[in-house]
Amino acid sequence: MRSTFREIAKREIDRHSVISFDVFDTLLLRPYVSPGDLFRHVEVCEEAESFEKERRDAESRAYKKNQDGDCINFDDIYAEIDEKFRHLKDVEASMEEKVIRANEEMRMLFEYALYKNKTVVIASEMYLPGDLIERILSKNGYTGYSKLFVSSDLRASKWTGRLYDAIISYTRVDPREILHIGDNPTADVKRSRSKGMTALLYEKVIDRFLSCNRYAKRFRSLMKNDLEASILLGVTAMHWNTKVVNGNEDYWTDFGYRYGGAVCAGYMRFISKKASEEKCDVVAFVSRDGYTLEKLFTPSGSVKKSYIHAQRTINLLTSLKYKDEKEARHIVDFFGKENDVVRALSEKKLTASAMIDSERELFERLAEEARGNYASYMRNILGDPDKIMLTDLITTTFSAQRALHDTIDAKIHGCYFSVRGNEKNDEYEHSVYHPVRSDDSVRRIVPYLELLLTSPQLPLAGISKEGHPVYADNIDPHERFWASVYPSISEGIIKFSNDLNDIFGEHAPSFRNDIVTKWLNIQTNLPSDDDIENLSKVRWTFEATHTEYYPLMQNPVKRIIRNAFGDLVDLVKFKRYL
Description:
The chain is α/β, with parallel strands linked by helices. The chain is 53% helix and 12% strand.
């Protein structure tokens, strides 16, 4: 059986007395595909147009002025940069310190070397000053090493071999006793070996992630120069690496992180922005789509948040506007639980719609009572606000907003991931995160969105006379299965947002709607073996009555057809939904 890198590295650590570690892309990771994407991030955050290009050019000019061929430092670069950008030197350094994180795989090897009482040194080919790198290392748990060698401080480069000369001089051992681990085939491996050291090449985490995950590689090829795409891939790669190292995360938590993390983070930032712009008193998240979103939302100022039931089943009971026999049957069954006349009707050999028509006056009275029960329920939760922002996933008829509008005497602004049908509906004030376009990339991922943004709660049957939710008791096994795994999915989604906020803080990306839908579309089109094994078990429904369920994942032949004729197949598949 082939040995892993960690197994090989541990054997080599055991054989050597001095262990030297590279820093960037080895001990430490940046949450970007390319290190230079940090310059673009600074440009965006500081609204400093063309900073990225000027920063790269300034570094190039500084290297050209370097006569001895050894490393330049931070001051050299900013001496070359356009004067209008020189104030960003501290901003760049601060951003580096903020976003860089430990590589868990290498931290294990670092700690192993210390545990084995090896002399541990750290060698960085970097323009940043040594004191900054030392702070970053310490912040990420790298302490107890003997010495840090930084090329910019010593003016000694790995590329010329002079940095390795400094290490050999400091340790006073035969170079053959020194093991160096780094990610650059030339600077870390070839040059150290030329000095008599042993060297191990460590493949960059981002490179391994892209090579091991087809969806990530495809996404990268389509969004190569996009900063938000770089951050999405960088953060996901760091999570993937930690998962590979620790091996303690179940499939569904990882599914939530990969599939739902960016979707929810992007939509949540849109929700927060709109809540502020609309000056809403309460942000109400509609069950069940709002379960995880409500957990992610952090109210500011006097804004409050609530989690409410406003499903289509409420409209069935309060309006008696059913589309088919299944919806009519839901009305009869719910009212029949507490009404003897309706229960007696159920024993007759009549269709549900015929029962309602035969006792129209009775059902109208029951619907009026249901409206009163629902109003009581809403007042208990929402109080008496002036303006409410109702947050839901996807709507076609604005049923939740209509139900709230008919119940609460307050201004209501709807906030939706997407609106199907009449997006420019003037009757109900609303905002849309992902407007419908000609390619309509949302349509293809509707089942995944519905499952990622749901809850472990069972489907709602109605609202009781006491104003409490009544959940369905005759539950399909597919519904129970999803309810059982959803807590793990929600945990993964929340972990992604927490990682994003922990790394970037106020500089976290907003994630444009095209980024998150493309990310989800590509993953659903290029599923991994684990995805196929687990998601092939899943069935989903878009019906208010939760009576019919459809496969989430198509069989391999259908996936090939979908990839070739996606729009046509999707249109047929979702014609009932639309």
